[in-house]
Design a protein that fits this description.
heterodimer, A: 310 residues, mainly alpha, 13 helices, B: mainly alpha, two-stranded antiparallel ribbon, 4 strands
């Protein structure tokens, strides 16, 4: 009951946000990164797979969508779907290789293969190399022009909400239960007869696809795609968002994304390159002192007080 | 002029030499990673940052403190090693009982702090470090000119790798280290101070990275970002070689450096990704790595 009320307040807040005087492009960026972090959390939080190269799917999908819209004048929806398709495909290829190893090896393999994607984007013609893709038009969806910031905002928020619900459904499905079993004890899941690698691969591909959608939308929102979007720095940021907000919780990644994106938005003007130092320090503090993240800690406190009352 | 497949032989040998130099750095770094992982169970993401700090220590020493190359070769690894010891004491020590992913995330944060701080102080552009006068110039081998400094880098790296291997595989101290890698609790029960050993091992592994950094300072630009992309390649090298074996780390480092050099001759566009492609192939064929045991 309390949870439903909390969601109600949050949705209301999200729907009225553009009228509260907040900069709409900034808000849209928030939703994109929140979606990205939720996708990442599907792997880290619910399957305990630390992908250290999630920017590969985010960025390549952004490039494909941006290129199709800007150079080939594709319709927005088709270009976004094409971007997501590429992210899914990359997810299948990289995921199939990476799930062959567990734990830290999995992290190193995803990192190395995402670096491969980065170098391909650096050298390929269509990405515009160091310059990236510029002035990507937003086009229209179902006859609604997205050039207007408020329309775009509701489109982005609708996509985010849909993906959030999708992830909720995935985690609460029988498939999600198997993922949690793998998180808890992989050898036992194997001994129960589950083909663990297939489950992990499917989770990986789903996560890559949602990360891709987030990237495509980000390309449309900001109107440009650069190498940063496929870089290891972006992969690191999404890890931080999830960890800081609370991996394995539903709202955690959203909270983490809001905190990290806001920090970057305001700090980068203030302190320049020292923002990397601050991000690194947050990483250290997070790992040393509150590994459950904001939302995880709050949930733990609530559970503790409830237990003491009963 | 002799040519192989239409490419001048001297160009091929030159690229191979460069590849061997890079391979030496890969070998030194993956050796340190393997030693640290063996005992601590931590994948040290900050390894590239320590390599960068080693190079910067040499640069700052020369520019501001009058420390020459030869002293830097000793002092920079020492300083960075001490920094490593402090980090182990303050942070890493508290994570050993947790999932190894936390060690990776912590050292990633440390790498970000080190890079960001150096960029804040020195800027993002590269600084050049002169080749020491004793090692300038080159040998004329008749078919190519061999730059003395590059030959020195390869020899010095190989020597340090050999000494490290000897220390771990053939001495009493190494035997204790290997025993602690197998079962730390039991070794501690025999009265050996394992936490001290762990601390020194981390410091030494990090010092190896800093040593590679000093060696690299005259051949690459000393910049805050020099370690970032390197550490990712070294991770791939470690996955290819299998993290369990020291010889595996050294050999795969050198060989992959050579392969990268050769790719630069044959198909330059692929030279930055060839190691990752090889990693993918190895994962399909032998998921535990070439020298790995599970």
């Amino acid at each position: 009951m309390r949870l439903r009320a909390a969601y109600g307040v949050l949705v209301l807040l999200a729907l009225t946000a553009p009228f509260l005087g907040l900069y709409p492009v900034f808000l849209m960026k928030l939703w994109c990164f929140a979606m990205f972090a939720c996708a990442f959390n599907l792997l880290l939080g619910f399957t305990k797979m630390l992908s250290f190269g999630h920017a590969a799917y985010f960025g390549s999908s952004a490039y494909v969508t941006g290129w199709l819209v800007a150079v080939h004048a594709w319709h927005t929806l088709e270009a976004v779907l094409a971007g997501v398709a590429v992210a899914l495909l990359l997810g299948v290829v990289i995921g199939a290789l990476a799930v062959r190893r567990q734990g830290i090896y999995f992290a190193m393999i995803t990192l190395a293969l995402s670096q491969l994607v980065f170098f391909v984007c650096l050298q390929a013609e269509f990405t515009g190399g160091e310059n990236g893709l510029q002035s990507i038009p937003r086009g229209s969806v179902l006859g609604l022009g997205l050039g207007e910031d408020r329309t775009m905002y509701y489109f982005v928020f609708a996509c985010f909400a849909a993906m959030y619900v999708l992830i909720l459904r995935i985690v609460h499905s029988p498939f999600g239960q198997v993922l949690k079993a793998i998180r808890a004890n992989e050898p036992r899941a194997v001994s129960l007869g589950y083909k663990v690698n297939r489950y992990k691969l499917l989770a990986f591909v789903l996560s890559a696809g949602i990360a891709g959608l987030a990237g495509s939308l980000k390309a449309l929102v900001l109107g440009f795609v650069t190498l940063t979007d496929v870089s290891q720095a972006t992969s690191g940021e999404v890890i931080l968002m999830t960890l800081l907000g609370g991996s394995g919780t539903f709202l955690g990644p959203v909270v983490g994304a809001v905190v990290v994106v806001t920090l970057q938005e305001y700090l980068s003007d203030l302190v320049g390159s020292w923002v990397t130092v601050i991000i690194g320090a947050i990483f250290v503090i997070c790992v040393m002192t509150f590994r459950l993240g904001f939302v995880g800690e709050i949930q733990r406190r609530f559970a503790a007080t409830r237990a003491s009352i009963e | 002029m002799t040519t192989v497949f239409g490419v001048p032989l001297a160009a091929i040998l030159g690229q191979l030499m460069l590849g061997l130099v890079n391979g030496s750095f890969y070998a030194l770094l993956s050796l340190g990673l393997a030693v640290i992982f063996g005992l601590l169970g931590v994948v040290n993401f900050a390894h590239g940052a320590f390599y960068m700090l080693g190079a910067f220590a040499a640069y700052v020493g020369l520019q501001f403190l009058g420390v020459n190359y030869w002293w830097a070769l000793i002092l920079a690894p020492l300083a960075v090693g001490i920094l490593g010891v402090i980090i182990e004491r303050l942070f890493l020590r508290h994570l050993y009982l947790l999932d190894p992913l936390y060690g990776l995330l912590l050292t990633f944060g440390i790498a970000l702090i080190a890079e960001g701080a150096m960029r804040g102080v020195f800027g993002a552009s590269g600084n050049s470090y002169p080749v020491p006068s004793l090692l300038q110039g080159g040998f004329n081998l008749g078919f190519m000119v061999l730059p003395i400094y590059r030959a020195w880098v390869v020899l010095a790296s190989l020597a340090v790798c050999a000494v490290t291997w000897f220390l771990i595989e053939k001495t009493r101290l190494g035997a204790r280290l290997r025993a602690a890698t197998e079962n730390a609790l039991l070794v501690q029960a025999f009265g050996i101070n394992v936490p001290l050993m762990v601390m020194i091992t981390y410091g030494a592994g990090v010092a190896l990275a800093a040593f590679a950094g000093v060696l690299a300072a005259p051949v690459v630009q000393v910049s805050p970002l020099m370690g970032t992309s390197l550490v990712i390649v070294v991770f791939a090298v470690v996955v290819i070689g299998g993290m369990g074996s020291l010889v595996g780390a050294i050999v795969s480092g050198l060989v992959l450096g050579l392969v990268e050099g050769l790719t630069k001759v044959v198909y330059p566009e692929a030279s930055s990704i060839v190691v990752f492609v090889i990693m993918a192939v190895v994962l399909i064929w032998r998921p535990t790595g070439l020298f790995g045991r599970d």
